[in-house]
Write a structure and sequence with these properties.
The structure is a homodimer. By secondary structure, chain A is α+β, with helices and mostly antiparallel strands. Chain A has helices spanning about 15-30, 35-45, 55-65, 70-85, 125-135, 155; strands spanning about 85-90, 95-100, 110, 120, 140-150. Helix content of chain A is about 45%, strand content about 20%. Chain A is globular and about 45 Å long. The structure holds a DNA duplex.
DNA sequence: GTCGCTGCAAAGTCTTTGCAGAGAG
DNA sequence: CTCTCTGCAAAGACTTTGCAGCGAC
């Protein structure tokens, strides 16, 4: 019933929930709900990877070739989603950014410089320290990201 | 000659030291020491800011107009310095990367999404946790970066 | 002298934008 | 119906590259 319990540490969000959040967002900002937008959200949801706009575009073309979704729409939708904090982007190394759904549990990243794989992790200790730091400095934190670069277990072999 | 003493927690490095490290690096890789390369290193050293390649290029053109340093050389030198870990780059938000001298004391970043200013900080607690985490996961850390986004004290007014 | 470096301009990437027709509300 | 979206292609922003002459060693 009533409000969704604000569950700190909320775990994986259901797709239905996500979709309905997206629709609310669109309604609120008087934007339209289109097939392309839905497909982009769904593809992001179904991927555990961090995707580049191009990755996303390819995945969509494979799955829904009849839509002939343009790369421009992918960029436009990602920008929209990022503005609304529904996805977050990660930029590092070479050119380009990678996107992931922000609704997933918050986490930081271990990035392997050998194979490019990204491992996620969360550490409460660090999260707490971040709050202490920003509080102490009078900085109003809205988001943060942490990347650790190195060589993953696999590539060390 | 022998290796540079690996001094954990090394504090601000002197320019002379830095320059000589740079020369060793060049010698080791059979590259040449040129005025342009020196000027780029010096400009990075003298700046407390995180510079884009274009910023750097402008600063150099102002200070040494007679060199007519090309932007391509700035890019080439930054790539060289980054490969050798003498500078690190930070990429976020819009397009482009910002560079800073890696020899400076390690630190993380508070980035104001209003004014774009970058504040640096260090937290031993977090540094320690990072090591614990990578150790636990069998990940061989070579570097890391953390950014906290939000609104700085000034912009909250 | 040799061979790498540099500036310039041209070529590449990755992203954004303009436009006319398609489609959601 | 109206007004936003979309795909396409062209335009932009940022980087990289090819080349001929210059300069470090």
């Amino acid at each position: 019933m009533a409000e969704i319990a604000t569950d700190f540490n909320s775990r994986t969000v259901e797709y239905e929930q996500l979709l309905s959040d997206f629709k609310s967002l669109l309604k609120r900002t008087k934007l339209k709900f289109t097939i392309q937008r839905e497909v982009i959200l769904e593809t992001l949801y179904n991927s555990d990877e961090h995707l580049t706009p191009e990755d996303l575009h390819h995945l969509i073309q494979e799955k829904y070739p009849e839509l002939k979704t343009g790369i421009a729409t992918v960029y436009r939708t990602l920008a929209l989603l990022e503005d609304s904090s529904m996805v977050t982007s990660l930029s590092f190394g070479a050119q380009g950014k990678k996107y992931e759904l922000g609704a997933k549990e918050h986490h930081d990243h271990l990035i392997c410089t050998e194979c490019g794989s990204i491992t996620e992790f969360v550490d409460e200790e660090i999260e707490k320290r971040q709050h202490s730091i920003t509080d102490a400095l009078g900085f109003q934190m809205s988001d943060h990201s942490m990347q650790i670069y190195g060589i993953c277990k696999n590539c060390q072999k």
